[in-house]
């Protein structure tokens, strides 16, 4: 059997779900917003670093361009270069001039590895092998690489990286800055001043903070990088990994400066924010769960009290009551009040049903004890009737016939409904006997429409009131005795009115007759109490009695019962003596 969940167990998940949905949406929006902020910050930082690196690189290269310009403006150097370009043999002083100029450029340049004067068919070199690269083979290799990519139209040109086998072994590379000279040869501009500088100089211009990697590339070769081992490699190889990458082209050199920001910090920031929001969400949900539990606890206790009372009532204990709690919600107190009222009414109803059942049982026992064979009574009365006729006692015969009709009406289908017409006929026979006993005539006036005469009422409802009129109203009264019976329909109720012109009642007696409790113990009015009980059994609270009386003038009885119409059959005709 499936176990039912309590109200609290159903309420808490709903509250947590209602709290989780907005928290989840808020977290998503916060993460999206944070991601946008971080991306914007990265873009701003990268753009700023790129601009700064470009500016520093331009300043650095400008120093070397200035040295080359100064050397290119030296007339003696240009004259010696022109003679060498024409193939003339240089004097010792001219050679010394060229070498001295190259040495001066290297000595004055921070990070310079070597310098050269490059002519169409010859070249002059100066390097510092003890400082950067051992041997001068790297310089010839660098010149050959430069000649393959040089642009003769530009004053300054650049190349890199270079360094030969030694550079690959120790990771020290150089890049070249070249200044085109104007010498008077058949091919103008055939001379070029070259200055090779350690790539560490460029590396110092790049952003190298934690989480940031930068490099300068010339085509598909990295010239300088914040990572020392990446010089000479391809940019694609260096760009592997989880990075935010941005780059720009340096106008003078044509080299590309690339900034790579590691996304590890980006992901860590997002994860930290997510973890923080999850913790906040869990804390909020925990607080809401505790608050919901504390707030719902009184209500749950009230509901359980009501449920317990209902369970007790279901087991038959209608004396149980639910105590109202001022701290409980209004609706629960309303339910408790309604349940208490219902339990009280049910308890009273059960008490009445038990009382009614007991009374019915006693009545049935009394009826069984007093039961006489109706046929014996009818045969006996018939014998008496014929004896009276034989002796010409017609009045006695009439009285015996009336008594037989009364007995037949009372015994056949006792307790069932009969047409009003039959009830009126029976009352006529009853009055006939009573007036003989009273010793004077009773004038009966009946005002009942034909439609109402066909309606059904329970037998013997009117007899006790007619009996009271004769016994208490007409006894000892001088003058004419009148009994009026009227019936009307009023809003679905049959209004029966019985009025006599007897002695009437004073105020205290009338009040006592109106009080049901006091009537029960009033000797001589048991019939009225009997009618009240029968009306309650037949019609519940839908039927009631009302009395009017003026002492010495009249007594009027009002009976209100639900109207019911039915067909009159032959059996009912026989009941009324038809």
Adjacency order of strands in the biggest sheet:
2-1-5-4-3
Provide mean pLDDT, rounded. Answer: 79
Distance between the termini: 68 Å
Could you estimate the helical fraction of the residues in percent? 40-55%
Number of helices: 18
Q: What does the largest sheet look like?
A: 5 strands, antiparallel
The secondary structure category is alpha+beta
β-strand number? 16
Overall 3D shape = rod-shaped
Give the radius of gyration: 65 Å
Low-confidence stretches: 130-136, 567-578
What are the SSEs and their pairings?
Blueprint: H1 7-72, H2 75-85, H3 92-108, E1 112-118, E2 123-127, H4 137-149, E3 156-162, H5 164-170, E4 174-180, E5 192-198, H6 200-203, E6 212-218, E7 221-225, H7 235-238, E8 243-249, E9 256-262, H8 264-314, H9 330-369, H10 374-390, H11 394-411, E10 417-419, H12 420-438, E11 442-447, H13 450-453, E12 456-458, H14 463-474, E13 481-490, E14 493-500, H15 507-514, H16 516-520, H17 526-539, E15 544-550, E16 554-562, H18 570-575
Helix pairs in contact: 1-8, 2-3, 4-5, 8-9, 10-11, 11-12, 12-14
Task: Compose a concise summary of this entry.
Among the domains are: 212 residues, no CATH class; 164 residues, Heat Shock Protein 90 (2-Layer Sandwich).
Describe the structure in your own words.
It is a single chain. The strands form 4 sheets. A 5-stranded antiparallel beta sheet has the order 2-1-5-4-3, sandwiched between helices. The chain is built from 18 helices and 16 strands. The C terminus is likely disordered. The protein is an alpha+beta fold and 578 residues long. A hairpin with a 4-residue loop joins strand 1 and strand 2.
């Amino acid at each position: 059997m499936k176990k039912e969940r309590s109200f609290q167990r159903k309420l808490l998940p709903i509250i947590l779900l209602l709290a989780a949905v907005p928290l989840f949406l808020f977290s998503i929006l916060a993460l999206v917003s944070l991601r946008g902020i971080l991306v914007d910050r990265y873009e701003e930082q990268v753009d700023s670093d790129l601009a700064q690196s470009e500016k520093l690189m331009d300043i650095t290269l400008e120093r070397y361009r200035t040295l080359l310009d100064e050397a290119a403006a030296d007339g003696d150097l240009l004259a010696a270069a022109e003679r060498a370009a024409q193939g003339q043999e240089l004097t010792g002083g001219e050679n010394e001039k060229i070498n001295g100029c190259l040495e001066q450029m290297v000595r004055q340049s921070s990070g310079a590895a070597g310098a050269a004067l490059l002519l169409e068919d010859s070249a002059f070199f100066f390097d510092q092998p003890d400082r950067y690269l051992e041997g001068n083979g790297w310089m010839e290799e660098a010149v050959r690489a430069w000649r393959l990519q040089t642009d003769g139209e530009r004053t300054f040109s650049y190349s890199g990286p270079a360094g030969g086998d030694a550079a690959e072994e120790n990771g020290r590379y150089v890049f070249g800055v070249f200044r085109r000279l104007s010498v008077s040869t058949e091919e103008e501009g055939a001379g070029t001043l070259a200055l090779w500088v350690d790539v560490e100089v460029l590396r110092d211009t790049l952003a190298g903070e934690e989480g940031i990697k930068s490099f300068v590339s010339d085509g598909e070769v990295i010239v300088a990088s914040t990572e020392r081992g990446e010089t000479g490699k391809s940019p694609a190889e260096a760009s592997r990994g989880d990075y935010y990458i941005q780059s720009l082209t340096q106008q003078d050199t044509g080299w590309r400066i690339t900034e790579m920001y590691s996304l590890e910090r980006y992901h860590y920031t997002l994860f930290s924010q997510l973890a923080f929001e999850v913790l906040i969400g869990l804390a909020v949900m925990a607080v809401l769960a505790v608050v919901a539990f504390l707030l719902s606890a009184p209500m749950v206790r009230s509901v359980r009290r009501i449920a317990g009372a209902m369970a007790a009532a279901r087991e038959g204990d209608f004396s149980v009551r639910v105590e109202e709690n001022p701290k409980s919600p209004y609706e629960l107190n309303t339910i408790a009040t309604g349940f208490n009222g219902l339990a009280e009414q049910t308890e009273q109803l059960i008490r009445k049903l038990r009382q009614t059942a007991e009374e019915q049982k006693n009545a049935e026992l009394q009826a069984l004890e007093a039961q006489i064979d109706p046929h014996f009574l009818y045969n006996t009365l018939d014998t008496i009737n014929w004896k009276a006729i034989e002796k010409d006692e017609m009045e006695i015969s009439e009285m015996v016939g009336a008594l037989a009709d009364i007995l037949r009406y009372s015994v056949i289908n006792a307790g069932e409904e009969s047409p009003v017409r039959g009830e009126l006929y029976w009352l006529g026979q009853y009055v006939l006997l009573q007036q003989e006993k009273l010793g004077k005539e009773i004038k009966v006036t009946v005002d009942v429409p034909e439609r109402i005469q066909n309606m059904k009422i329970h037998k013997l409802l009117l007899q006790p009131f007619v009996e009271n009129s004769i016994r208490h109203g007409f006894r000892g009264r001088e003058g004419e005795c009148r009994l009026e019976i009227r019936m009307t329909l009023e809003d679905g109720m049959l209004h029966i009115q019985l009025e006599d012109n007897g002695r009437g009642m004073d105020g205290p007696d009338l009040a006592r007759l109106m009080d049901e409790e006091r009537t029960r113990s009033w000797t001589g009015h048991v019939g009225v109490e009997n009618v009240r009980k029968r009306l309650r059994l037949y019609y519940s609270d839908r039927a009631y009695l009302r009395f009017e009386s003026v002492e010495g003038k009249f007594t009027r009885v009002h009976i209100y019962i639900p109207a019911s119409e039915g067909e009159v059959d032959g059996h009912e005709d026989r009941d009324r003596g038809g």
